[in-house]
Sequence to fold (1442 residues):
Amino acid sequence: MDFTLPEEIEEKRKKVREFALKEFTEERKRYFDENEKYPFEIRKLAYELGIINFSNPWDLLVSIEELCRVDPGLGISSFVYAFGSEILMLFGSDEQKKKYLEPVQRGEKIMGFAVTEPVAGSDVAGIASKMEKQPDGSYILNGSKMFITNGSIADYVLVLARTAPPPSEEKRHHNMSMAIVEMKWPGVSANKLKGKMGVRATDTAELVFENVRIPPENIIGEIGKGFYYVMTFFNITRIYVAAMSIGIAQGALDMIVEKAKKDKKFSSQESIQFTIAEMATRVDAARLLTYRAASLLFQFNPDPVFTSMAKYFAAETATYAAETALKVTGLDGAITSLERLFRDSKIMEIWEGSSEIEKLVIYRMFMKKMGVE
Amino acid sequence: MDFTLPEEIEEKRKKVREFALKEFTEERKRYFDENEKYPFEIRKLAYELGIINFSNPWDLLVSIEELCRVDPGLGISSFVYAFGSEILMLFGSDEQKKKYLEPVQRGEKIMGFAVTEPVAGSDVAGIASKMEKQPDGSYILNGSKMFITNGSIADYVLVLARTAPPPSEEKRHHNMSMAIVEMKWPGVSANKLKGKMGVRATDTAELVFENVRIPPENIIGEIGKGFYYVMTFFNITRIYVAAMSIGIAQGALDMIVEKAKKDKKFSSQESIQFTIAEMATRVDAARLLTYRAASLLFQFNPDPVFTSMAKYFAAETATYAAETALKVTGLDGAITSLERLFRDSKIMEIWEGSSEIEKLVIYRMFMKKMGVE
Amino acid sequence: MDEEHRVLESVVGEFASKELEPINKQIELEGIPKELKKRLSSQGFLGALAPYDLGGASLDRLGYSILLKQLASASPSVAFYVFLENSFVIKSILLKNEVREKIGLISGGEISGTFYYSHLLNFLEPGEIKKIDSKLTGKLNAVINSEANLFIVPADDGKFYLVESGFHPLDEHEKLGFRGLRFSPVKFDTSIKDAIEIPLNVDELIDDTHLPISAIAIGIAQGALNKAIEYAKERSAFLHKLKDFQPLAFGMAQAYSQLDILNEYLINIAQGERDIKKELMLKIISIDFARDVSKLALQVHGGYGYLMDFGIEKYYRDAMFLSILGGNHLDEKMKLSTLIFQEKAGWI
Amino acid sequence: MDEEHRVLESVVGEFASKELEPINKQIELEGIPKELKKRLSSQGFLGALAPYDLGGASLDRLGYSILLKQLASASPSVAFYVFLENSFVIKSILLKNEVREKIGLISGGEISGTFYYSHLLNFLEPGEIKKIDSKLTGKLNAVINSEANLFIVPADDGKFYLVESGFHPLDEHEKLGFRGLRFSPVKFDTSIKDAIEIPLNVDELIDDTHLPISAIAIGIAQGALNKAIEYAKERSAFLHKLKDFQPLAFGMAQAYSQLDILNEYLINIAQGERDIKKELMLKIISIDFARDVSKLALQVHGGYGYLMDFGIEKYYRDAMFLSILGGNHLDEKMKLSTLIFQEKAGWI
Fold:
């Protein structure tokens, strides 16, 4: 057993922390939050300074953690421009990778991942969007997507839609497929969602597809395997959401520790001391669960039980930590970044499978391990 | 990062589990619990079959876990006969090791560790027992000790007592020393405590020392360093209590999973599914915290923050798991071993520093890491 | 609360501290002594719900709640015993005029009865009594107060029978809580001639237990918390009284607040119109609360809390057992969900 | 609860759903509209605690609690505004006969006032107003309703002053909750001639807020939970309504039960004798409860809950802000501990 990260990863962690502390100024944090603007400049800077490194997964993981620790809105915006890229890496054709993935990896283009629909949040198999095959081999897409990250700024999005009706109620997840859709194509429109509680620097939109023609070469992988691709993707991204969550929780802990350092009256209260001890313990537990899941994933041996445990526990730790830190620091916290951290944290329990979904995954996969079908 | 234990340790884990399942029969569990008897035969068997191996700490850790998973009372009794031995290993003289430690390690003698007093539970520095130096170099011990594991069956106990008054209120922990006291010496008496809520197969006693003469060669290490020795010891044993706690929590989880396997109506309830998912997650988090702390200790680099985090979190997980499993299995759990597991679990939050003490240690040492004195 | 109930509260409170507290250990180890049953009887507690002419006290819902709460604060075993005799046995027997006079024996402490409802508690193998020819034969598991003289038990014909002979209790089960009562399987081999059918509606009987069970839960919480508060005022650690430390003091203050809030709700609904929804809500909340508070009280006592002699650990065990014997949580949560959503809910 | 208060409850409930719900988003984005203040005034809500002759409704403790609870269930911002005007501003002004007529302007919605008490909330740099020569000068941070026409503020001589000129609010702080009210630092440079000393006892004033703050907390919980219950009946996932799933249904059923229990306690103590201990207990419990329930309600709504348009996330933010503005938890927990242990407790 070895609970330490390689030295170069810890070095990178320091570098990212320095970057975040320097670039995520109080003014910027507040500006992009209040104005609900995506920080293109910061994203560019992060790319250029090599903060975001998609080629080393541990590097990416600790970078996500450290960026979100200082500001989730700006932090997530710094790396989320490639959202969905794992799908292309794993299931895309060489042409798709060249045409769509590489420009994203070079920091030139922005991508999105469009699965959730207004009528089907966590219930991916319940989506209603359709892609109908045309005589010329192309597909016509109709439907709408909800809560799509990068929705109004993306150059293209990966869309999940039905290519045939479900064979039965139990097999609702069959006959779904994925395609790359360019946002500039006719029939595609995006409606930016304003008024999110938190992570307001990130872009979120509702997408509408009206008779959008998709050339056959934009279909990802095999027709009918879309649901499987999405679940594979979630097994990766859940770990990143867990990392964001740890970042938020650590950020909240940082703030209460900072106050304890400065304010002797505050830190002399035993109830405050216990709060710090409890919070530090939970943050560490969440981090260990996340690193364990990540360690398996990065060895190409992901364990869905461990992944969902990490995501669920880390997300709840994020809201718990932000809430608790704000509660004990009071007004002092309410007029600082802690207030934002609190608003940002709640989405962690919803993204990439709500806590409820994670628990179902844990239960089913855990019982499978125990020999139950 | 590597979250796997060496193969031989996992093999040993299996072996210990087989042993426990075979030897800790329902009849024995119940008999020793009801009659509050120490199971000398089982202890002997565990020793002879090589279940207990003090020479490999990982081996010992997983053995503790697996024994307590099946029955904490019998499990703890199987290895606790050497309680306190780390003190002699670390601070004892060669003569002391030969005379007192080796017979224990050979499974012939039983040892105890006598720190807690009626007036001072968690507050070690508050003890009142005294050892007064005599003109001939020997010491006279007076005082009483409470909740001493093995108290009425031990051949000798390691006693902490004041050898001089505290220099000041802040330095109450100064001027304490440790000595080996043989239970057969004049003036030593033990009063077995009956009616414990759980772990009733383990032996617990109140000890009284009336003018007990201790030869100078039985003083451990340096005079005045007793408090430090005890704290060093706790940094080790807290990890073992954490391991017991994980064992209990896992045992509780096992039982609810068993019921879910057998009873379809039970397992089809989503609230039960969530309970299993939540419990499995917490048990894993506790295990990871414990293994991390252990990993550092076993590299002779213990981290008191990580150790206390593990102990506190694992102990609370044990009571949470036993309580929850019993709650959801109802009468079915109440007339099986789960009932005992529930009664056994609660002591975990008290032994080797209550949860409250662990939190104080975490806070203080954590803030030290953060640069606060 | 009116004067009459206030007096009852203080009378039972005094009884609990003078007559139960001193023999608590004996009750736990040896069961409820015969003399105590006599004392309970002479106070009218044993026949709390029985009519005056049968030696009862004919208490109303509030009075009965107060009685159980106060008894439970000192001895949850005794409270559960009184509850079992009244809410199940006496109430059942009252449904059958022919055997009405047995109530006098129960409220007089001459005999004790029990009612078998473990089969309602999601219990895997509750056992069964078969009606074959002229006999009631079989074995029931997990019978509380299994040393009773009188059993009201279900047979496989769906009816409940009162039997007074032809049974014997087997070896005891593990005993999580209510150790004052025997808890074991019971074998039956009773002539049908000696069995009297009781025309009871078991669902109604169970619905009527929400309030008394809540009262026991609140009593357990009250007893455990009071002891913890007293202990925290006496016991020192690190040169200060335990009560001076925020985490302990705040935890107990929080529990004290919740207790008062639940207690007022108990009194409100016990004196108001019957409202099964409110009674069920209170039961579900107060059972969990009793467990949490008694656990806290144990922790405040440190190592001593773990010893029977201190009379604390029993609250935690009894609260846990009450949460099991007090009703099938899952089914009842479904029922409550349906009441709240006003349509079927919580069934997946 | 008597008929009069029942009527009030339904009147305010209707007001909340008809007059607040539809403009909730506007309130959050742009503040409480002038017209709404007029409407609040014409109902007598703005001058809830003011005497009739000054345009008030002269509500008793129960009436005031009901008012705040019902307003908070739709708009916590509006409830907090009404609370601030009454429990702080009007109550303070009533202490000084010479300025009594200003109450008419407040209860009439002509002007609004605020009271500065952030310095009591363990706030690191609350700012300070110094009395130097003939001026009150300085800056106060974290002033809620900082666009008020009238301020009651403490100066460094330990006295509170009412001022109506010589101040201007600075840029707004981050706005965690109660977005209908401006929240910012305020600069003061007021001539002492225009400042009127108010002889108030700030501890008493704060003690009087436990009950109204509890009412707001309970209202927040009620508003959030009702929306969640309705949503769970409408929204489907995995081919079933959300209400059908046990974890969600049971969670909401539990919250519903606790809400009812707290609500009855609120009503009990609001109509009973003043009991500061009970009021403090209720406040501490209900503030935490409001946060937990509003968080649950948000979670039930999934992604939609995170969007302002659905009117759910504000409850969670407002509950959090209420827990901060509602009192200094640590100090108050110490106070409560001392009341419960009947000697100094919880101070380490």
Chain D has three domains: 3-107, 113-200, 209-341. The interface with chain C takes residues 229, 232-233, 240, 243-246, 249-250, 252-254, 256-258, 260-262, 264-265, 268, 278, 281-282, 284-285, 330, 333-334, 336-337, 340-341, 343-348 of chain D (CB under 8 Å). Strands of chain D lie at 113-115, 127-132, 135-144, 150-154, 160-163, 167-169, 183-191, 196-198, 236-237, 240-241. Chain D has a mean pLDDT of 95.
